[in-house]
Structure formats: C-alpha cells, structure tokens
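Propose amino acids for all 247 sites.
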C-alpha cells in the first residue's frame, strides 16, 4: 500500500465533500445510515471545540476515518477516540494502528480516553494507553444510585448539546434533591448518567431501580459485565461515564 496517505483535519476544516466521504466510509463500515444531523451535532456544533479527524486515502479515495472527539475532562482539553471506520477490504493492513499513531503525534501530550471493545483493547495497550480502574455495572434502588451519581458541572449550553440535542440517543430526566438526574434507557432498564442543576426539558420518568456504570455507585453487581476504560496522559482516578459517547 505504497500509495496510502493520511490527512489530519480539525472539524472546522472539513468541507462538505470530505464530510460526505467520512459518512460514506462510516456507514459502509458499520452498515448504518446516519444522516448529516449526526456529523453536525457531534462535530460542527460541539461547544467544547474542534475534534480531530484522521483520514486515510488510497489512490485519492478515502478508505478510513478516525476521530478524536473533543470532550474535555475536569476543564482540561481532552479527546475521546470514536467512530473508527475502515472499509472492509482494507482490514488487517495496519490502518487502525497507523491512524492512531498519526492522531497521537498531532495531539502530542493531550488527554485521550476511550471505552474500547474487546478486539481493540489490546491494541490500545500496545500504543501506550493505561487501563483505568475497572468498574462493574451495578443496580440498586433509585435513591441509592441517584445519591451516588456524579454531578456534571457543565454549562447549560453544553448539557443541552450533549443530552437534549443528541440525534442518536434519547435521554430522560428525574428530579432528586433539588437536582435533575439524566437517565438513558437500555434494554428496558434505566441507567443513571449524571446529576445536573438545570431542567433540560427531557421527558420525566420515575423508575424504581437504576443501573450505573460508574465506580462510585454502590449496588448489586451484574455478573460478567465489566466496564473497562483506557486513557493516555490522564492522571485522574476514574472518568465518569457521562463523558462516553456510548452513554
């Protein structure tokens, strides 16, 4: 693959043609049909700032897209690895590794984190990621999980963007001790994401039980359900799960 070339763009530098190529690559890789709303919400309208797109071309045709999504941690500039797509005919040719290395070189010492699947987990470790303390998925009565759920100290603008304007996921709300709990429904169960000071206009629900990915929440552990996360250049003890795009 001597003609393989990489290009790195900030979200603000991605023109319409390149955006279309990115989404074609993504949709073909994951057999999905995400619309323009997805790219606009996740990258163009991101109040945290520009994400970094690592694009791979072979003979001037885009065959892979790798995104470092801007989503800061504790008011420090940070990026989450998301939406990695490689066209099927180019799997196993080291494009994932080369794309990641290009992104790391560009971002230098910036904080990077993610929630990888079991296939990519070993590859990240080889590239210098550190394993964060594992967390078991837990459940308990509403008031216990709500009490321990982390507070999201973001501006209202960022909260609305992350949870209300998200075109890919539906979030719910429930009041608790003068705050509002953000919830996500998965397989019929409600997961507690975070507590906020604002009413975001989400649909209100009143669950009896809540599940949580966060390590600080006390509850009954779900067997064989580990939540393993990785980070690079991050010195904190854990990363609250409201940061992750899968939540």
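Proposal:
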């Amino acid at each position: 693959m001597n003609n393989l070339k990489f290009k790195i763009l900030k979200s603000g530098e991605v023109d319409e043609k390149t955006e279309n190529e990115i989404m074609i690559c993504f949709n073909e890789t994951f057999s999905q049909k995400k619309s323009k709303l997805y790219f606009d919400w996740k990258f163009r309208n991101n109040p945290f700032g520009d994400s970094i797109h690592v694009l791979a071309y072979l003979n001037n045709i885009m065959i892979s897209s790798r995104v470092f999504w801007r989503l800061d941690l504790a008011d420090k500039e940070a990026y989450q690895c998301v939406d990695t797509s490689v066209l099927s005919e180019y799997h196993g040719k080291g494009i994932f590794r080369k794309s990641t290395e290009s992104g790391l070189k560009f971002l230098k010492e910036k904080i990077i984190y993610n929630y990888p699947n079991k296939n990519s987990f070993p590859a990240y470790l080889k590239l210098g990621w550190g394993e964060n303390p594992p967390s078991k998925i837990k459940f308990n009565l509403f008031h216990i999980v709500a009490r321990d759920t982390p507070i999201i100290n973001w501006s209202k603008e960022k909260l609305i963007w992350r949870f209300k304007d998200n075109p890919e996921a539906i979030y719910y709300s429930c009041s608790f001790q003068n705050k509002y709990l953000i919830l996500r429904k998965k397989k019929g169960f409600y997961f507690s994401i975070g507590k906020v000071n604002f009413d975001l206009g989400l649909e209100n629900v009143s669950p009896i039980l809540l599940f949580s990915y966060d390590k600080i929440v006390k509850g009954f552990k779900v067997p064989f359900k580990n939540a393993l996360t990785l980070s690079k250049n991050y010195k904190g003890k854990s990363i609250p799960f409201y940061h992750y795009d899968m939540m």
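The first helix runs from residue 16 to 30. The first strand starts at residue 4 and ends at 10.
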